[in-house]
Structure formats: C-alpha cells, structure tokens
Amino acid sequence: MNAKPNEPSNEDIGRSIRRRRKALGKTLVQIAAETELTIGFISQVERGICAPSLSSFMRIANSLNTSIEQLLNVSENFEVLTKAEHRQSYSLGEAGRWYEKLGPGFSGALFYPCIIYRPPGHVSERMHHKGEVFCYLIAGELEYHLGDAVHNMVAGDSIHHDTTEKHFSKVVSDVESVELWVSSHPITG
After folding, report:
1. CB–CB of 142/179 below 8 Å?
2. Which of 39, 101, 128, 138 would give a disulfide with 32, using CB separation of 3.0 to 4.6 Å?
3. What is the architecture, at CATH level 2, of domain 10-71?
4. What is the CATH number of domain 110-184?
C-alpha cells in the first residue's frame, strides 16, 4: 500500500475547477445542469469552502471534458500493469479519506478501479447517476443504502448495482474502511 498522499487544499481544487470552467466558457448554471449538482455547491467548491466527493468530482471533471487527474495535476500514465509501489494516490480535501488509483490501463477504458480509504463514521454523499458500480469491502464495516434497502457489509462482502438507483454508504466500524471500487461511466458525446 502506498503512503497517504499530500492533500491538495480545497482552494487548490476550486481554483483548478474554476480555471478550467472559464477556459471552456461555461457558466456555473451549465455545470450544475450537466452534473446534477447545485449551483451553490459548485460555487462553494470553486471558492474552496468545501471539497467534492469522488463521485461529484468525477461528474464535474466530465462536464469540463477533462479528468480528475488533470484537474489535480496527477499524471495519467496508461500502463497495462500497475505495480503496487507505483500506484498513484490522492485525497479530496476531507481528512482521512483518500484514494489509490488502480487504472485505467489504457486511454478510453470503460472501467475505473480504485481503492478508497475512509475513516470511521464517514458518510458518502447521496447520489445517483448513469452507470454501474462494484464494491468489494477489504476491511472495516459499511452500512450501504441502496434505494429503500440497507445492506450491512463486513470485510469480504461485495455489492454490484445499477447506479441510477439512489445510494450512499456509511463507515460503521471503529476502524478505517478499505474498499475496492470499480465503476463505469457513461460515454458522453
């Protein structure tokens, strides 16, 4: 496992998003409509008041025709094999929550694998979007909310579902959760 990354500040993330949005000539209203996020939330992210979750950041990056890695200045080395000691990691402004990038191994890949580390008590944002997701819980315990159902997950459990159904999760263990995620994202024209 890689060491925890140096965490970019909320201000750094916001400046990068604002710079890209303005370079494309897009408004906050357009980004909000394309991402299904509120104008207020995107404005707060751009001003460094809060940091987006991974899901929100992916939607913002997609709307800006770029990637999270480009917005965070993390290099995108497309390699079929990723050695453990060469995995890239990053954090998104919330202490204790960080990500290890496991792919994609080639440009145009349809699956985005990563390992997410979350502290006890962390609650993800409530979301729904096109695509599908697979999560394998490596360590810790989660309470996974999918539609009206609540699934209690322990290490070794997995969940795979259509992401158009509303979902979120909460770390309910006293230890950090370690989660392997593989997600798909719709191809946009």
Report:
1. yes
2. 39
3. Orthogonal Bundle (1.10)
4. 2.60.120.10
